[in-house]
Amino acid sequence: MARLIDAGPGCPTPTPARRVGHSETGGLTYTAEVKAETDHLYPLASDFITPMEWPAIAPLVAAINRLKAERNAVILAHNYMTPDIFRLVGDIRGDSLQLAREAAEVEADVIVQAGVHFMAETSKILAPEKTVLIPSLEAGCSLASSITGRDVALIKQRYPEFPVVTYVNTTADVKAECHITCTSSNAVQVVEAIARDWNTDTVILVPDQYLARNVASQTDIRIMTWPGACEVHELFSASDVEALRLAHSGVVILAHPECPPDVLEAADFAGSTAALAHYVRDHRPAKVVLLTECSMSDNVAAENPDVNFVRPCNLCPHMKQITLENIYDCLANMRHAVDLEEGVRQRAKAAIDAMLALPKMTAPLAFKTGLAARDITVISPA
Ligand code: 13P
Ligand code: SF4
Question: Which of 2, 31, 109, 319 has the highest local Cβ count within 10 Å?
């Protein structure tokens, strides 16, 4: 079983090590003032931060919350953030699609993207007048680095008759070359809409070959793709699902559509991070597994204390670059502002706007499970 962490039922995955007094935080201390400002927040964190640890964390939380007010800043926190970030300082929480919509609408001068770099770029594309900060430049993504704008330009030269959809997990350069973006919350809707617009039965969906294969099994549209993969989700396999069912009788298995198709085939439900959270909230299974990034279970478990979470998962090394310390540092020093060339930004925005202009779905897409994988064409890099 390809799992990096199995914290077991009810036990949150470890948050990154605290570095109290580190230069990033300028040696913040737990004063009476900090205590008064943060005491009401401790109950939100008491399941994963002990009373002994709290005095090391509360000063950071207080300092971040003060800086947010001073700078008129909001923190957009992806579902994969560790619970300290997600629950204690995140203002708007959600999946890639929800965060993109919020970036376009939120009233703030500064956005801190508690997520990975492509998400910060998406915010800047949609809100160029705002300062968008990414707390760590190391927060990349294996999908975003699997393809370049030049690769897409060559694909379009080779297949000018087919529209190119890019998963939102890509750089602005890639989005700028594509006709429309999608997320895992709306991928099938986007593929079918663009096929209708172009009057074609074939759509190119890059760069995630597994998302593309999973979309292909949900639609009659013929899908072509690119050999990219999420380094976190590609580690899950159908034998993991089988082993989980054997070890945990009656467990309900939910998977993200970046997992290989045999995982979705064996799972009970699949969808974006938002879809997985909705499933747990709406169905309240007695025992559940989320086959996705580790912190997701911690965050969903906090909202569903009566549900028993079995927690095999894989850590995203990029998401885990974001810490309370570097959120504080980027806000204190206005460090790591995203900057995009205006022509690229506008062309990337056209692709995102095309997605956002589609009718808003009432709920994030639920991928049908139990379907056999369809063979699809994988375009080889030139
Ligand atoms: P969601 O759009 O489902 O939040 O996924 C983003 C992501 O990076 C998953 O690995
Ligand atoms: Fe990228 Fe995968 Fe990490 Fe999501 S989990 S940010 S797709 S590497």
Answer: 319
253 lines ligand 1 (CB under 6 A): no
Beta pairing, strands 287-291 & 202-206: unpaired
Quickly list DSSP for 334-371.
T-SB----HHHHHHHHHHHHHHHTSPPPSS--EE--SP
Does the pTM surpass 0.85? The reply is yes
pLDDT in tens, 247-300: 999 999 999 999 999 999 999 999 999 999 999 999 999 999 999 999 999 999
The architecture of the domain spanning 15-141+319-333 is: 3-Layer(aba) Sandwich (3.40)
CATH class of 144-232+341-363: alpha beta
Superfamily designation of domain 233-313? NadA-like (3.40.50.10800)
Using CB distances shorter than 6 Å, the residues near ligand 2 are 116, 141-143, 169, 230-232, 258, 293, 316, 318-319
Domain boundaries, the chain: 15-141+319-333, 144-232+341-363, 233-313
Instruction: Find the ligand nearest to 313 CA.
Output: 2
